[in-house]
Amino acid sequence: MGKTYERIDGRLRTFIERQPVFFTATAPLVADGTVNLSPKGLKGSFAVLDEQRIAYLDFAGSTAETIAHLRENGRITVMWCAFEGPPTIVRVHGRGEPVFRDDARFKELLGDFPAIDPARHGLRAIIVVTAELVRDSCGYGVPFMSYDEDRDLHGGRFAREDDASLSAYFSKKDHIAQSLDGLPGLPLPLPPANF
Questions:
Q1: With b meaning 16 or more CB within 10 Å and e meaning fewer, what string describes 66-104?
Q2: Which residue in 71, 69, 67 sits closest to 56, CA to CA?
Q3: Nearest-CA neighbor of 113 among 60, 59, 24, 48?
Q4: Are 36 and 103 in contact (CB under 8 A)?
Q5: What confidence tier does 124 reach under pLDDT thresholds 50, 70, 90?
Q6: N or C: which end of the chain has fewer CB within 10 A?
Q7: Taking the domain 3-172, which CATH number applies?
């Protein structure tokens, strides 16, 4: 039976910090808009900031749907599920905000991710989520799968990019500066990295 929690602490915090992958879901306000569901990973790219806030690093990719949806309406759900150990699913429903490289809060927030080299992955923004509803439920239908290690492909691909070449890469993609539904996405050119 699922339960609702007022904060992210104790057992919930321990559980989500141990998971190697999580998923984010966002959508535009229009009824026929494109719902986006994204897997996230890379060890060290997620942090619990306090009992109400979580954050993750938003790296280079082929779209910026999450950023566009958050800029429009802020709605986001983040989900973790146990592929090993006891069957558990945790969801944080809340309000998200992309904190871009030129935001005064960016560098301080980056300090919450000491285990990862942001320049290696084409860091675009830090997504900060304030929880409005925290729930867990059984994960009886989630299969057992083992985590071996992170893939090194993403870091290998984007480590060779500087700010100018990364901005050029994003400019060539159809759905970085603008979402699939035409919403403003990632502001380009990228502000200089101040890592």
A1: bbbbbbbeebbbbbbbbbeeeebbbbbbbebbbbbbeee
A2: 67
A3: 48
A4: no
A5: very high
A6: N
A7: 2.30.110.10
Rounded-to-integer distance, Cα 53 and Cα 61, Å: 24
DSSP string, 98-155: EEETTSTTHHHHHTT-TTS-GGGGT--EEEEEEEEEEEEEE-TTSPP-------SHHH
Q: Say whether the peptide bond before residue 189 is cis (omega within 30 degrees of 0).
A: yes
Tokens encoding 50: 């306090």
* Stated pTM of the model: 0.95
- Residue 165's H or E segment, with its range, is helix 163-172
Average the pLDDT over 152-171 and give the result. 92
Measured in whole angstroms, the distance separating CA 155 from the mean position of its chain's CA atoms is: 16
Higher confidence at residue 69 or residue 192?
A: 69
Q: Residue 139, Cβ neighbours under 10 Å: how many?
A: 17
Residue 101 near residue 194 (C-beta atoms within 8 A) = yes
Phi-psi region at 192: left, alpha or beta (left = phi > 0; alpha = psi -120 to 50) = beta
Give me the sign of the Cα torsion angle 126, 27, 33, 20: positive
Neighbours of 58 (CB within 10 A): 25
In the three-class reduction of DSSP (H, G, I as helix; E, B as strand; rest coil), residue 17 is classed as helix
What would the pLDDT profile of 107-120 be if each residue is shown by its tens digit? 999 999 999 988 88
